Amino acid sequence: MASLEETANISSSYKVLSWVDVTGTYSTWVEYLGCFDVKDIKIATKKIFINGTTLLDCLEICKGSFFIGLQIKRCACLLNITLNKLSVSSACRNELSNKCLNDRKAFCALEDTNIFTQHFAVYKKVNITTQTVGECLSVTKRGSVLSYTALDCLTDLFPICLRSIYNNDIYAQKTRKTIWIESFMECASMILARHSQIPNDTPLDTNVRYWLSNTRRFIKHVSASRESLVTVLVITSVLTVAVVAVIIVLYMR
């Protein structure tokens, strides 16, 4: 059955014409599973983003889905995905997975040139508790306990890699520290281990931070503060009085 496709009118930017208070929250965490040719029966809906897809836009569109797929200009709300032939036909070739145009900290599949394939960078929503600020997840071994910390995605860390995109065999790659989006290139499989794949007895160096494949996005909430609104009203009133006074003076001449 063919999936529905619509054009989404979601803007990832905004302009503010007054003094504002900017606060924010974070989106749910997601695990990047990899890039795959997803079977049509697993695609509930697709939406087109003319100016390019972002992870946050897709999370907003697919609030009712546990899995989402990103393409350069498309977002797909996916049904439950398993990394086998029931859900995906094959993994993407390396050149088909790229950074998103409007979200350089996320992966998007390139647009398909073959009408018989539907390649998407696939993400799964997960629940992770962390009190720290940041959009990418790291893990550290402290004694016999693993500690998970959200960090700025531009931090340089070693990655924990999967030996294959289809299994849970993991290892710490300590060749080179890089930022989150680049750390996937340090793995032979081109994929990081996920939070859900890390047991407490994972052999890691103590007090060394490593990247995992989990990420999230900061959601800005912009509102005009009460003090700012009062200031704007006062300035507007003063300017209005000044303009009226000038008009009266010119009229009396």
Notes on the protein architecture:
The chain has helices spanning 55-61, 180-183, 226-252; strands at residues 4-7, 21-26, 29-38, 43-48, 67-71, 74-78, 88-91, 97-99, 107-109, 119-126, 136-142, 145-151, 158-162, 170-172, 209-215, 218-223. The protein is α+β, with helices and mostly antiparallel strands. The strands form three sheets. Strands 1, 3, 4, 5, 6, 7, 10, 11, 12, 13, 14 and 15 form a twelve-stranded mixed β-sheet that branches. The chain has a two-stranded antiparallel ribbon with strand order 2-16. It is globular and about 90 Å long. The chain crosses the membrane at residues 229-252. Keywords: Membrane, Transmembrane, Transmembrane helix.
How is the main sheet built? 12 strands, mixed
Structural class computed from helices and strand pairing: alpha+beta
How much strand content do the residues show? 35-45%
Oligomer: single chain
**Count of beta strands:** 16
Could you list the spans in which at least 5 consecutive residues all have pLDDT below 50?
A: 1-19
Describe the global form. globular
